[in-house]
Amino acid sequence: MELVIKDLSKTYANGVKALDEVSLTIPKGMYGLLGPNGAGKSTLMRTIATLQEPDAGSIMLNDLDVLKQKHELRKVLGYLPQEFGVYPRVSAQDLLNHMAVLKGVTNGGERKELVNALLERVNLYEQRKKAVSSFSGGMRQRFGIAQALIGNPQLIIVDEPTAGLDPGERNRFYNLLAEIGENVIVILSTHIVDDVKELCSNMAIIHHGKVLYNGTPQAAMANLEGKIWEKQITKAEWERYDREFQLISTKLVAGQPLIHVSSETDPGDGFASVSADLEDVFFSQVMH
Ligand code: ADP
Q1: Nearest CA owner, ligand 1 atom 6
Q2: What pLDDT is recorded for position 87?
Q3: Closest by alpha carbon to 270, among 232, 219, 240, 214?
């Protein structure tokens, strides 16, 4: 099972080039698509989900031509969009049942079993009689996964799924995705580096519609080994360091800036060498 994207391009009517010859090969497992807001992630996700047309390029899921065989693709697709509209005052159980009807699960008994199994799977069975509109962010996202799993999808797309979740909810959501990702392709689009770090065996970084990196998170970090330097400075010093060095990140630690710079050689000035983490990879890619 493999999703092969070749030279995909899209320019919107307002002239924004959202995808610029994007080529990616996405294997089974969890795949992270990491990029800042506006990078083109949603455009790519919606194009793979057959919700919009590219200007050029191709997408193949094994032998299936995604852009031509839309109907076939939709049968094997589970999609959790960024904005998941919910119907007010409809219980989780009823809404999921309704969605299963729409996805073609026509046998009533079979459908009931499926709905219950999915609610169990995402740990919402106890709350099945409650309106989805009353759910917390994390519960809604888990409900979103339940609906995306109807029909045993081979390809699952989740667009910015952890936005607005608290740490506990995020963890539960991670665990659920990791379990699902063992047997199918799961593409997770996010601007949160931790999402990819914790979950994904393969990843791409996209920025301004272009693929800047494509590979494992480990290889990306190994590429920067010995090139990341760290220093704790004071707030007053920050402006000077920002001017004189190529800062790739600034974190506040106990109220004081901890800066990372990328440099082939020791920048001196009291910087210490540190191992690169995925955040360094991300910021060094998108800032150059
Ligand atoms: P991301 O999901 O990474 O935040 P998007 O794919 O939503 O990125 O957007 C990529 C770029 O395309 C942005 O500059 C955005 O403003 C622009 N864009 C997205 N959708 C449209 C649209 N329907 N019409 C015009 N521009 C759009």
Answers
A1: 40
A2: 65
A3: 232
Helix axes of 108-121 and 137-148: crossing angle, nearest 10 degrees: 140
Q: What pLDDT score does 287 carry?
A: 77
Q: At 106, which amino acid appears? A: T
| Tens-digit pLDDT profile for residues 58-94 | 999 999 999 999 999 999 999 998 776 666 689 999 9
DSSP H or E run through 66? none
pLDDT of residue 84: 67
**This prediction's pTM:** 0.89
Q: What are phi and psi of 167, to 5 degrees?
A: -55, -40
Q: For residue 20, which of 40, 42, 50, 34 has the smallest C-alpha distance? A: 40
**Cα distance between residue 282 and residue 105, in whole Å:** 42
Question: In angstroms, what is the span from residue 269 Cα to ligand 1's centroid?
Answer: 41
For 119-156, give one letter per residue: b (16+ CB within 10 A) or e.
bebbebeebbeebbeebeebbbbbbbbbbbbbbebbbb
The pLDDT value recorded for residue 114 is 96
Atom of ligand 1 nearest to the CA of 12: 25
Rounded distance between C-alpha atoms, residue 164 and residue 170, angstroms: 9
Residues lower than pLDDT 50 in the chain: none
- Output the CATH code of domain 2-216: 3.40.50.300
Single-letter amino acid, residue 281: V
Query: Among the atoms of ligand 1, which is closest to the Cα of residue 46?
Result: 6
CA–centroid distance, 42 to ligand 1, in Å, is 7
